[in-house]
């Protein structure tokens, strides 16, 4: 590929750069993931996209190239559709409740795959909390497939195992000082290439919701979309957000926060460290502490969207029975 020509097109700044068409973006990201782009040109390309942002056609091409490098898994038979949860940010200011969400979904009968980074020097990752909960990541695809089928707990899939090439792209952040396209793409990855499944997706600002919804439509994916919490996909226990269901090109408002005002939190982890979060999570799962209402409502939306409940009210009844003491 002529990388000089590509950089000339995309490197003109936010207001003057031109976008690549989907086939060119596909070929470019394939080359990037294969390690075929020289370091100097790769750095220029990453910074150019950091400045201009990826256009829809570029994202579709990049996504296709990424999925070609994602380890496939088979969905368990005779179970509800799997739910895939990305976890690449972790906890910075408040406890990371992604493991609580994943564990609760497993309790409700869903196969759950959480994929993400194993370590972040500045944040508490879901991987660390899962380890404190006794859930350890597999090291081989065969082990991941077996765990998904046999255990009734979430499967945490490190990005280094799910896609070593994407892991390499993500790690360039620490060398370059800024994030790159991989940080957006990784949150859209899925190991279920040919099965009906649901992805949890989040945005940082409401104006990105239409863009992500359009992307899900373009790739014919099903998911729940909402404003996230510090980059994670769990519902903020202090501020409920709208939750939108995306399925077969249709959008449905599953939860309007104005209809479900959140009461004050009855409990929360003592700290945001992995051990405190894990112990508090276990207490919630045993019914000793109440689930945060925002998490209850997010779980209810998952039940409704996947057809496991007729509505939010009946879903909440199911959830309350599952997590009642004893």
TrEMBL record:
<dbReference type="InterPro" id="IPR000312">
    <property type="entry name" value="Glycosyl_Trfase_fam3"/>
</dbReference>
<dbReference type="InterPro" id="IPR036320">
    <property type="entry name" value="Glycosyl_Trfase_fam3_N_dom_sf"/>
</dbReference>
<feature type="domain" description="Glycosyl transferase family 3 N-terminal">
    <location>
        <begin position="5"/>
        <end position="69"/>
    </location>
</feature>
<keyword id="KW-0328">Glycosyltransferase</keyword>
<keyword id="KW-0057">Aromatic amino acid biosynthesis</keyword>
<protein>
    <submittedName>
        <fullName>Anthranilate phosphoribosyltransferase</fullName>
    </submittedName>
</protein>
<keyword id="KW-0808">Transferase</keyword>
<keyword id="KW-0028">Amino-acid biosynthesis</keyword>
<feature type="domain" description="Glycosyl transferase family 3">
    <location>
        <begin position="95"/>
        <end position="323"/>
    </location>
</feature>
<dbReference type="Pfam" id="PF02885">
    <property type="entry name" value="Glycos_trans_3N"/>
</dbReference>
<dbReference type="InterPro" id="IPR005940">
    <property type="entry name" value="Anthranilate_Pribosyl_Tfrase"/>
</dbReference>
<dbReference type="InterPro" id="IPR017459">
    <property type="entry name" value="Glycosyl_Trfase_fam3_N_dom"/>
</dbReference>
<keyword id="KW-0822">Tryptophan biosynthesis</keyword>
<dbReference type="InterPro" id="IPR035902">
    <property type="entry name" value="Nuc_phospho_transferase"/>
</dbReference>
<dbReference type="GO" id="GO:0000162">
    <property type="term" value="P:L-tryptophan biosynthetic process"/>
</dbReference>
<dbReference type="GO" id="GO:0004048">
    <property type="term" value="F:anthranilate phosphoribosyltransferase activity"/>
</dbReference>
<dbReference type="Pfam" id="PF00591">
    <property type="entry name" value="Glycos_transf_3"/>
</dbReference>
<dbReference type="GO" id="GO:0005829">
    <property type="term" value="C:cytosol"/>
</dbReference>
């Amino acid at each position: 590929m002529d990388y000089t020509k590509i950089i000339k097109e995309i490197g003109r700044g936010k207001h003057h750069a031109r976008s690549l068409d989907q086939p060119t973006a596909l070929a470019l990201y394939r080359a990037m993931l294969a390690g075929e782009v020289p370091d100097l040109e790769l750095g220029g390309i990453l910074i150019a996209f950091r400045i201009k942002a990826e256009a829809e056609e570029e994202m579709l091409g990049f996504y296709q190239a990424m999925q070609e490098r994602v380890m496939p898994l088979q969905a368990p038979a005779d179970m509800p559709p799997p739910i895939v949860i990305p976890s690449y940010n972790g906890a910075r200011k408040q406890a990371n409740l992604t493991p609580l969400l994943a564990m609760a979904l497993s309790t409700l009968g869903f196969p759950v795959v959480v994929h993400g980074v194993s370590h972040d020097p500045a944040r508490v990752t879901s991987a660390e909390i899962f380890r404190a909960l006794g859930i350890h990541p597999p090291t081989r695809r065969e082990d991941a497939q077996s765990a998904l089928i046999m255990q009734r707990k979430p499967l945490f899939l490190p990005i280094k195992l799910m896609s070593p090439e994407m892991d390499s792209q993500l790690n360039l952040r620490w060398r370059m000082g800024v994030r790159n396209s991989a940080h957006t793409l990784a949150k859209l990855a899925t190991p279920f290439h040919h099965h009906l499944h649901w992805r949890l997706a989040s945005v940082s600002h409401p104006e990105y919701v239409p863009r992500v919804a359009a992307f899900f439509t373009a790739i014919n994916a099903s998911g729940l979309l909402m404003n996230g919490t510090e980059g994670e996909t769990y519902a903020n226990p202090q501020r409920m957000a709208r939750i939108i269901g995306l399925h077969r090109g249709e959008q449905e408002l599953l939860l309007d926060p104005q209809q479900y005002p959140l009461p004050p939190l009855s409990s929360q982890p003592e700290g945001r460290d992995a051990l405190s979060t894990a112990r508090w999570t276990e207490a919630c799962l045993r019914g000793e502490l109440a689930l945060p209402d925002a998490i209850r409502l997010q779980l209810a939306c998952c039940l409704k969207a996947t057809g496991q409940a007729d509505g939010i009210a009946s879903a909440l009844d199911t959830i309350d029975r599952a997590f009642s003491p004893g």
